[in-house]
Amino acid sequence: MSSVGRNADMTDVVLKVEHLTKRYPVKKGVFGKASAYVHALEDVSFEVHRGETFAIVGESGCGKSTTGKCVLRLTEPTAGTVTLDGEDFTALSGEDLTRARQKMKLIFQDPYSSLNPRMTVADIIAEPIDIAGTYKTRAERDARVEKIMQAVGLDLAFKYRYPHEFSGGQRQRIGIARAIVLKPEVVVCDEPVSALDVSVQAKVINLLEELQEQFGLSYVFISHDLSVVKHISDTVMVMYLGHTMELASKTELFDNPLHPYTRALLDVIPRIRHERIQDKKVLEGDVPSPTNPPQGCVFNTRCPRCMRVCGERAPEMHEVVPGHRCACHLYDESLSERDREPVMARALAEAEAALAGA
Amino acid sequence: MALLTSDKHSPKVQKVEDVARRASEAQMPTGEPGGPAKRRASSYWAVSWNIFKKNKLGMFCLVVVLLLALVAIFAPLLAPYDPDAQELTNMLQPPSAAHLFGTDEYGRDILSRVIYGCRVSLSVGVVSQAIALVIGFLAGVCAGYFGGKVDAVISFVIQVFSSFPFLLFAIVVMYALGQGLVNLYVVLGLLGWASTARLIRGDVMRLKGSEYIQSCILSGGKSWRIIMRHLLPNCVSTLIVTTTLGIPSAIMSEASLSFLGLGVMPPMSSWGQMIDAAQPYIQSSTYYSVIPGIAIIVTVMAFNLLGDALRDALDPKMRS
Question: What domains lie within chain B, and their CATH numbers?
Fold first, then answer.
């Protein structure tokens, strides 16, 4: 069996995100009053347990990275709360915030721009220590840096070198070392491997798993690569246009996808065998603009199983199967026959009627 | 991909992983046994120095600038006469063995005065640019980093300073403050920071969004730390280039102000002031005005070309 619940304690919630919303104002008009908003995140809620790898997947522009940034408060969320270790992270400020930030770190996507080119590897890794003042003496600090460098598989001879001397994989190791040097509770990994080539990806993923086991880390793993997610995650959340579409454990989600969007995503994973691009149900059309999201369910413009109700009101997240939550009207038992009428069938019927009348 | 999609505990995958690990270990350099082999210079400054060394003109100018600095420092040892000692029986002499560059209207040795003038010119160039550098950096960083209203105010001040006719402004301020070397430093420094500030502002705005600064914020780093540890080191090349290119213009301004009688206080010698003093005798004793003129040209050219060479060496876009 692979990594599910390997050392995840499903009763201990370390990070709880409730109704997280982020809207960016679009400046218009002479008085600079915002007349329109980019709806980057709408009412996103989830829980991350201790030792768990929680994956967020979706197309580019669906709000994955914004979720990560809002959770970390790199950008302030418009609404919603983030509870870290039982403490309301969104309400903190000043020294309390600095202290709480030691518990939550970020691994960046691009290992080339995430390291200051003018700092040595040791200084980069030690920066969180220097800011927090965790270790009183220089020797203790250096010892900690060396220990972490060994933990992430960096040669100690690299201590006084500069980032440009390293390959992408090694740079990402430096970034990981910087993130975990203060033993955080939660590490947000924002597409940590998508800038690396595949063989290095595998090594970095394995390193992340090792570190998780060693230090009991919880990951929020943001990715668009479903094969990576299938390998590393315990729980998966699917996002589309800033909305949560589906949330379930990895095995449940990959074996029994409920939401039409999740199905479409899983269908386009490249596989070695039985490959015929014609057989795949590739989604039609583009992602709608987040400035002007569709009425009702945000996915209704591209959904192959769109019903009348989908254009009228947004579906709620509800538990379809125990532990498997999905926001889709298809699984709402209370809908009337009229609501359930498929849009495609109706359009066809109307066209036929028009033809018959002519 | 098989590595990622399939079960990682199956023996096949484990074997593949094992092979991959051994291959990567073979490629990884393991320490450096037997002392450091001749490693290619790799720190930023070493690479820059290597590029700079290849620029012959730049090296030549660096030597000239260093020589000028030595002349300024060791002026009392190098000058054959006291620059202020008057010898009225021996005035306006053409160059001779006793007075290599001749004497001026008070019979003072021109060579000695040029050597001492080097002190004034270089110190005006360096000190005023140092003042401009500090003001320009702080203003630029504040404008770029804090943005919003701070940026609007500072940018407006920069616009005001750079749209003023420079010499006119300098003359007014020198009249207000009075003559003297220290006042020259201050005036030229106060008038020269706008271009530095504008360049730094642009640099900082570009760097502000970079991920290593976000990482510093995530660690709880304060603005001061971000400015000193992340922004300053990444702006150093811009600062070096603008300062090196600012020095010759400060020297020229000093010469202009001294020529107009607003520079250093006589009898202190400065090149601009010497040209001013030589004006009535330009037909009879041409060498008197030509010699300090040449000194100015050489110094300004050396600093300008040095600045160009430094820009080429420090600009990351020039690197292959």
Answer: 70-80+99-318 (1.10.3720.10)
